[in-house]
Amino acid sequence: MRLKFLEHQILFQVCSIPILLVLLPMSFESVRAFFSAHAPEIEIIETAESSSTVARAAEAHGVEPAQIAKTICLRVGDETMLVVASGTARLDNRKFKDAFGGKGRMLGPEEVLEVTSHPVGGVCPFGLPAPIPVYCDVSLKRFDEVVPAAGSTHSAVRITTERLAELTSATWVDVCQ
């Protein structure tokens, strides 16, 4: 049996048959550790239903879609950032360019996983492997409490908008419509 280690993958060969195992980062566990260290009073909610889209998350958590706090991973030039916005908000290209000096490019699923350690559908600004600038869009401010994902497609937290911004050291911006 031969082993070859790749990033997040192990390729091994048994009886001339190559087998590839994909190792997913411990995304949910990193979020759990983040809340244990920084906000032990906040409970992570795990659901049997997938909350990988705004509509599914709203249904799973009994809130309106706008109350879901979606996290968008973008790059402007060499800078990667997270924008947390209301589930029904859409990025406004003009506002975004005015705020950040360039057009934002949404990262693909592999890039998102690499940067955040969270899979698409579970992306959140908590438990990140390295510091990334976080921006909260003002579309969240109309709610006392929002529901962002918690590192997996089956987990989330209920959190006040102010606590969300505080825990993530977010800057408030107006980049959505």
TrEMBL record:
Instruction: Report the residue ranges that make up the YbaK/aminoacyl-tRNA synthetase-associated domain in this protein.
Output: 49-166
* Molecular function terms, GO-annotated: aminoacyl-tRNA deacylase activity
InterPro entries xrefs: YbaK/aa-tRNA-synt-asso_dom_sf, YbaK/aa-tRNA-synth-assoc-dom
Cross-referenced Pfam families: tRNA_edit
How is this protein named in the record?
Prolyl-tRNA editing enzyme YbaK/EbsC (Cys-tRNA(Pro) deacylase)
